[in-house]
């Protein structure tokens, strides 16, 4: 008896112990899985939005020091902003994925900067820009601050994750990581025939663009007349207005590109900032145009320096002899003319060009031209000389203006596996073909770099106040940023927007708006007609008011007022009816989901129950 | 395995021969619709995804899963059929697994019947159906975890009401453990590591992670481990009761 009781007790004890064992085992499994199984996942989203691109992975893997990423998101203030919250979820997930991939080198923190808190002060001190429109009018912070250890690189920030830039969110985060991880500025070479540095002797300041580039990169000026080799340490080369370049200089550029260097070429059919005399001391006529014919030919690009693009629909307004006139050769290209899918131009609003040329691909090339800036389809092509001749009256360019209905490329990325333009040269280290696909950015204007096309300089308290009125400076800065980052950064392309609206409701809304506008116009016309009739009845000014007319007038005024009231009511009804269509759709869908299907299930249950009961009765 | 299949078939069939299953399904579908359209603001927010629908599932399961599982073992014990079950040529673990799978399949059928919301969202816009599929997988796994907990609670007591309350309470605690408000509350008192570990135990957190459209091995392991652990505990509890 005692043995069996002892056995019984020990079995109960063992079973209880096994319960404890199960709990411990469960916790161990969860702990191990959360610590070690970090990368095994299947991204079921159609655009693979939660899968980092190889470019980002390269940058994260290349990090050599610990970084802290702090995501500031006003959680409380965004309770009612479903779209922003859904976007935050995506950004947060991407950051978490990056942190996991970094194997402890990146620490991710998320902070809700509630109003009047230290966190809010910190967010502002890092340069985050809050948006207005949160719940109860609170400000909404949604930005990222990245910092390395104390005393290291200054913290970098993404001031606000604008949902409009969603396609580039991975690029922006990767760029921030890249800049934090590689504190050295990119080396930028500038080779130019234009006076970018100004002239200290005669008191001409450097162009604003140069000052901006100095902040952005480690700039080296290269003399186009004596260059025979481009320093391999230079990651981006800006070639501005290449005129009469020696063969050695062209060869140096050719080999730079074949080695994988990033080149931006600015050529121009008419460089207005070119200070060279039109006829030099040797009597050579110089038209202030520039070209890179040998290299362009090898790369499969066609550029004609004798032709200028006009675009009457995008003409900038200039002041000439006290008159404001649209200059069809000076173009203000807006967001609709800039490539939204390219990170360089996606967020720019306007770039101003003056007497620009255009690029085309040669018929037999395999290269690709990806537009950055293009004209509208109202553009036309004229000889550069005609533009120069019409300097005193640019409106004459509109005479016999015939748009070709083509959109011309003023700036573009050229992608190809480049071949040398100098196959006959056999120097040591000569490359005949690039080792992989490369990229050159082409811009068909040099004037866009000059202050006059994008910056307003005003003296303020003894200082010069610079106010940009176009994004020309940002365009060049973005190019340098993009090309100077790393090839990994360049490879990160924009992703498709992850937010998907109710297209059917939107279409209904748009149709309703259109119907409403038509109805509104009809009613307004009617109202106008009534008003006009009323005015006709008004006696002429100064004439004695006959009493008979007053009665008729009064009746007409009465009718007018009544009709006005009726029209207001009718418009409200129209609006109501149109919204009702959307509401009715919502109601139908609610009915199907909440009533119809559960009702059918209930009906099925009832029929089944009834048949069972009947069968049971029959058996009895 | 045939024992498991036999129990699964018998149990699943038993759901549909009584009106309880239909009542349960109707309540589930009506509640899912009402919560999605009214609390989740599905139509007015204008986004072609099923986030408001899946967001409500943890709270829906919190009430409905204990209702399904409460009678699973408690009734067998109360009515004395447990001994009969033990005398059949099936092991305790086979019986537990069979009953669990039947309940899980039943919830799966309920989930499938929510297909009109999937058709609705595809009619209204162009949703990412991969994300929606992941949402269904996450929801079903969460239901599985709840059912496993309910199974264990049902083995622990004779009273169906107590089984219901215990299941709802444990599931509620597991849901709460990952809520930011709860984690914030303990932030100052508990070391961050513990807070992190507490978050890892949250059912809703893992289900939400899957509902974004990503099937992560960690989340799958979590659900698998939760189901296995609670079912194993159910087997031990039944064994304990038998030993007594």
Q: Can you characterise this structure?
A:
The complex is a heterodimer of chains A (620) and B (244). Chain A has helices spanning 2-36, 54-61, 82-101, 118-125, 169-181, 208-216, 247-258, 293-299, 384-389, 472-484, 487-491, 503-537, 547-619, and strands at 41-43, 67-73, 106-111, 142-147, 156-158, 187-192, 218-222, 236-240, 262-266, 301-303, 307-311, 315-320, 323-334, 350-354, 359-361, 368-374, 379-383, 409-416, 438-443, 455-460, 463-468. The radius of gyration of chain A is 35 Å and the shape is globular. In chain A, a hairpin with an 8-residue loop joins strand 4 (142-147) and strand 5 (156-158). Chain A contains 13 helices and 21 strands. Chain A has 620 residues and is α/β, with parallel strands linked by helices. In chain A, strands 7-6-8-9-19-18-16 form a seven-stranded mixed beta sheet, sandwiched between helices. Chain B has 244 residues and is mainly α. Chain B has one domain (2-243). Helices cover 82% and strands 1% of the residues of chain B. Chain B is built from 14 helices and one strand, in the order H-H-H-H-H-H-H-H-H-H-H-H-H-E-H. Chain B has helices at 2-17, 19-39, 42-45, 51-69, 74-79, 81-87, 92-112, 115-124, 129-156, 160-176, 180-186, 192-200, 203-211, 217-243, and one strand at residues 214-216. In chain B, helix 2 packs antiparallel against helix 4 (51-69), helix 9 (129-156) packs antiparallel against helix 13 and helix 13 (203-211) packs antiparallel against helix 14 (217-243). The radius of gyration of chain B is 19 Å and the shape is globular. The two termini of chain B are 28 Å apart. The model of chain B has no long low-confidence stretch (mean pLDDT 88). Classes of the chains: A alpha/beta (620), B mainly alpha (244). The interface between A and B is large, with 61 and 62 residues.
């Amino acid at each position: 008896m005692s043995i069996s009781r002892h056995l019984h007790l020990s079995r109960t004890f063992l079973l209880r112990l096994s319960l404890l064992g199960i709990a411990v085992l469960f916790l161990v499994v969860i702990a191990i899985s959360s610590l070690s199984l970090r990368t095994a996942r299947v991204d079921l989203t159609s655009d693979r939005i939660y899968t980092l691109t190889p470019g980002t992975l390269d940058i994260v893997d290349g990090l050599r020091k610990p970084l802290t990423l702090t995501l500031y998101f006003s959680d409380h203030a965004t309770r009612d902003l479903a779209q922003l919250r859904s976007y935050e979820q995506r950004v947060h997930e991407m950051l978490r994925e990056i942190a996991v991939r970094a194997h402890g080198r990146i620490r991710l923190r998320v902070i809700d900067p509630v109003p009047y808190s230290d966190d809010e002060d910190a967010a502002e001190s890092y340069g985050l820009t809050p948006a207005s429109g949160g719940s109860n009018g609170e400000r909404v912070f949604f930005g990222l601050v990245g910092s390395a250890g104390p005393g290291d690189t200054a913290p970098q920030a993404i001031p606000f994750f604008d949902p409009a830039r969603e396609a580039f969110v991975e690029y922006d985060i990767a760029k921030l990581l890249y800049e934090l991880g590689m504190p050295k500025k990119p080396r930028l070479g500038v080779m130019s025939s234009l006076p970018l540095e100004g002239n200290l002797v005669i008191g001409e300041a450097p162009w604003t663009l140069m000052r901006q580039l100095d902040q952005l990169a480690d700039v080296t000026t290269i003399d186009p007349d004596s260059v025979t080799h481009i320093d391999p340490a230079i990651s981006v080369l800006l070639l501005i207005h290449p005129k009469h370049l020696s063969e050695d200089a062209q060869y140096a550029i050719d080999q730079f590109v074949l080695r994988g260097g990033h080149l931006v070429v600015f050529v121009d059919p008419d460089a207005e900032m070119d200070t060279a005399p039109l006829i030099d001391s040797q009597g050579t006529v110089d038209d202030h145009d520039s070209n890179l014919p040998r290299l362009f030919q090898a790369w499969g690009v066609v550029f004609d320096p004798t032709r200028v693009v006009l675009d009457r629909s995008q003409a900038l307004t200039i002041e000439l002899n006290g008159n404001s006139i649209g200059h069809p050769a000076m173009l203000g290209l807006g967001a609709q003319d800039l490539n939204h899918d390219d990170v360089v131009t996606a967020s720019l609003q306007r770039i101003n060009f003056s007497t620009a040329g255009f690029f085309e691909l040669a018929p037999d090339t395999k290269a690709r031209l990806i537009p950055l800036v293009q004209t509208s389809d109202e553009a036309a092509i004229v000889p550069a000389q005609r533009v120069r001749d019409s300097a005193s009256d640019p409106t004459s360019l509109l005479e016999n203006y015939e748009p070709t209905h083509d959109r011309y490329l003023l700036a573009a990325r050229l992608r190809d596996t480049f071949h040398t333009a100098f196959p006959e040269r056999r120097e040591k280290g000569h490359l005949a073909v690039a080792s992989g696909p490369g990229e050159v950015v082409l811009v068909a204007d040099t004037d866009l770099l000059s202050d006059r096309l994008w910056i307003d300089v005003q003296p303020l308290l003894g200082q010069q106040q610079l106010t940009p009125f176009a994004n020309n400076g940002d365009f060049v800065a973005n190019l340098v940023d993009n090309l100077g980052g790393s090839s990994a950064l360049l490879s990160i392309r924009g992703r498709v927007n992850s937010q998907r609206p109710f297209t059917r409701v939107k279409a209904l809304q748009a149709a309703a708006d259109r119907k409403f506008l038509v109805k509104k116009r009809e009613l307004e016309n009617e109202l106008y007609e009534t008003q006009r009739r009323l005015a006709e009845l008004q006696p002429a000014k100064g004439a004695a008011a006959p009493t008979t007319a007053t009665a008729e007038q009064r009746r007409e005024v009465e009718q007018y007022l009544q009709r006005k009231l009726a029209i207001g009511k009718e418009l409200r009804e129209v609006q109501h009816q149109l919204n009702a269509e959307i509401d009715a759709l919502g109601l139908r869908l609610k009915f199907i989901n909440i009533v119809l299907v559960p009702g059918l299930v209930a009906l099925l249950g009832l029929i089944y129950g009834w048949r069972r009961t009947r069968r049971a009765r029959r058996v009895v | 395995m045939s024992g498991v299949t036999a129990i699964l078939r018998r149990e699943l069939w038993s759901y549909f021969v009584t009106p309880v299953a239909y009542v349960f399904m109707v309540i589930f579908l009506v509640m899912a619709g009402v919560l999605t359209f009214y609390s989740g603001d599905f139509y007015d927010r204008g986004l072609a995804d099923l986030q408001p629908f899946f967001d409500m599932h943890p709270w829906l399961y919190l009430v409905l899963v204990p209702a399904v599982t409460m009678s699973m073992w408690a009734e067998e014990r109360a009515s004395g059929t447990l001994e009969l079950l033990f005398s059949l040529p099936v092991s305790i673990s086979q019986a537990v697994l069979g009953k669990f799978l039947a309940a899980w399949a039943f919830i799966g059928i309920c989930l499938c019947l929510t297909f009109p919301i999937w058709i609705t969202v595809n009619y209204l816009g162009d949703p990412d159906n991969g994300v929606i599929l992941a949402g269904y997988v996450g929801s079903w796994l969460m239901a599985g975890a709840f059912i496993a907990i309910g199974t264990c609670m049902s083995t622990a007591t004779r009273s169906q009401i107590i089984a219901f309350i215990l299941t709802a309470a444990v599931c509620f605690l597991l849901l709460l453990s990952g809520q930011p408000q709860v984690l914030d509350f303990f932030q100052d008192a508990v070391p961050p590591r513990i807070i992190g570990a507490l978050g890892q135990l949250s059912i809703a957190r893992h289900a939400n992670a899957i509902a974004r459209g990503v099937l992560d091995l960690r989340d799958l392991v979590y659900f698998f481990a939760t189901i296995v652990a609670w079912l194993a505990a159910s087997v031990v509890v039944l064994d304990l009761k038998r030993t007594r």
